[in-house]
Fold:
Amino acid sequence: MSWKVIYLPEVEKDLKALAHNQVITVRKAINKVKENPLPQAEGGYGKPLGNKHGTNLTNFLKIKLRGEGIRIVYKLIRTETSMLVVVVGVREDEEVYEIAQARRIRNNL
Structure:
């Protein structure tokens, strides 16, 4: 079953900041993950995040695109079988998670 993908409005800016080939890779990864975005413990692709390094991203998941150095943070909306993409960004220490935390708070997620 394919999940519906919803993007926070800020993700459009995240994608514009990436190179064209990186955007293609991100979109392919999201299309693959939307087929089974559940946590790895439930047989899916998502790696759970938690409360680390001053960011509370409990109930959020991540996808790491190692070859591109990009992380995608998302949250499952299980009542609607949707996945909400919160942030897409190049790996810069913990910056992606700090951005995700700020968006979580701003959007009441």
About this structure: The chain has one domain: 4-106.
